[in-house]
Amino acid sequence: MALDLYAKGAKVWIRHPEIVWEEGEVVERSDDKLVIRPAEEGEEEQTIVLKSKDDYPPLKNPDILIGENDLTSLSYLHEPAVLHNLEVRFVQQNSIYTYCGIVLVAINPYERLPIYGNDIIQVYKGQSISSVDPHVYAVAEQAYRQMARNFAKRIEEHPKHMRDKLNQSVIISGESGAGKTVSAKFSMRYFAAVGGAEGDTRIEDKVLASNPVMESLGNAKTTRNDNSSRFGKYIELGFDKRNHIMGANMRTYLLEKTRVVYQAEEERNYHVFYQLCAMRDEPEMEDLKLLSCEEFAYTKGGECPEVESIDDKEEFSAMKNAFTVIGVKQDAQRVIYRILAAVLHMGNIRYKAKSRSSDDASIPSDDAHFPLVASLLGVDKAQLLKWLCNRKIQTGRETMVSPLNIENAMQARDALAKHTYSQLFNWVVNVVNGVLRSSKKQTSFIGVLDIYGFEIFKKNSFEQFCIN
């Protein structure tokens, strides 16, 4: 550290209790202290005792560098410099993107911006990352160019490498609500546009159609984000030797199963449940016997039946159309809706004590939701009743059936709901992968990884611990 940079008049950053950092100016310096005047009028001067080099405040970048589109261009790259540069670009320059070398920093504007259309794709197509303004399309183009260029170069030098995989990956990370899912979606849109398949296969349309399906089943409204991914997702887009998309494969992990039965205040269950409830009066939904989302235990927990930015009916239509584009037949879609409806009705099953002298759980004979669950799942009512109120215990060679009390029975019911939804989710992923998978061998791929956001709730399950 060049200590002579802290001469009188030097601009520095000092801590602030509300805005974190604020600008200041050195007005006095001695061997053991600095006196700094805050830029905000009316604030008292601060004295910083200098016991070591770590006590010196961060220096402010020259004004000419503030607002640079690449953070590595700054003279000083520390926390206040990064935050201030991002603020200037976001507030004064209306830019949500900033480079940091090969990394793209994105700020979630929490509104739709007109910067992702086909005309914008054409601006970035074929351009190097250093010649265009920061954008998620620039990063996607860089990955596509590297894949195509490296492959062509290797083939020219060594024809035997024709079968080698020369792959790229786009890693999207950030805390919950940062906009990771949207960034992943636009990356895929770019790859689909520049690497469109030849002929009438339109595999790129099917790749993009997987988004509304997975968002309906795997996204939910949280306190930070109206469309938060509650699962991790990694998608591989396979390309042929001409750099056209020929197929895709999706891997998912850590689905937040707890959300199926419990939601924190001002949060919602998975979108698809509210979409179904919104469509309950449609003739095709009549046999599901759906209620409003405020009448199902599994959708009213967060006391957030509606979200201003979400039209549940419109989103259901988008999901349904996506299923059709992907190739999921109407009969299979009906099975999905029946299972989802069964999960909703499962949460409304009531329990009571068998008798006054026993706390063993039983389901009242007049419970309207229990027979619906059995019917929708296509299972035997007697068997379902038995295992919603009892458990099997294996002791050596003997097997015993032990009754559950009401609390344990409710936990068993919730466990069944979570497992049922998880299995349905995995089945849909397998169906999507079956449609997107190509029978031809790919020569390379680009992976898009949408990583889970870190979160801490008032009530944290072991599942959330694993996610974090």
Task: Give short descriptive properties of this protein.
single chain, 468 residues, alpha+beta, 4-stranded antiparallel sheet, 4-stranded mixed sheet, 13 helices, 16 strands, 37% helix
What this model shows, in words?
The model has no long low-confidence stretch (mean pLDDT 90). The protein has helices at residues 79-92, 118-124, 136-157, 180-194, 203-218, 271-278, 297-300, 312-326, 330-346, 369-377, 381-389, 406-436, 462-467, and strands at residues 11-16, 20-29, 33-38, 46-49, 97-100, 103-106, 168-172, 219-220, 228-229, 232-239, 245-253, 352-355, 358-362, 390-395, 398-403, 444-450. Strand 2 (20-29) and strand 3 form a beta hairpin. With 468 residues, it is α+β, with helices and mostly antiparallel strands. It is 37% helix and 19% strand. Helix 4 (180-194) runs antiparallel to helix 5.
Can you give the helix content as a percent range? 25-40%
User: Roughly how many Å apart are the termini?
Assistant: 36 Å
Please identify the structural class as seen in this structure.
Answer: alpha+beta
Radius of gyration, CA atoms, in whole angstroms: 28 Å
**Binned strand content:** 15-25%
Largest sheet: 4 strands, antiparallel
Helix-strand topology string: EEEEHEEHHEHHEEEEHHHHEEHHEEHEH
Question: How many helices?
Answer: 13
Low-confidence stretches: none
Total strands: the figure is: 16
Can you list the strand order of the major beta sheet?
1-2-3-4
Global geometry = globular
Q: Mean of the pLDDT scores? A: 90
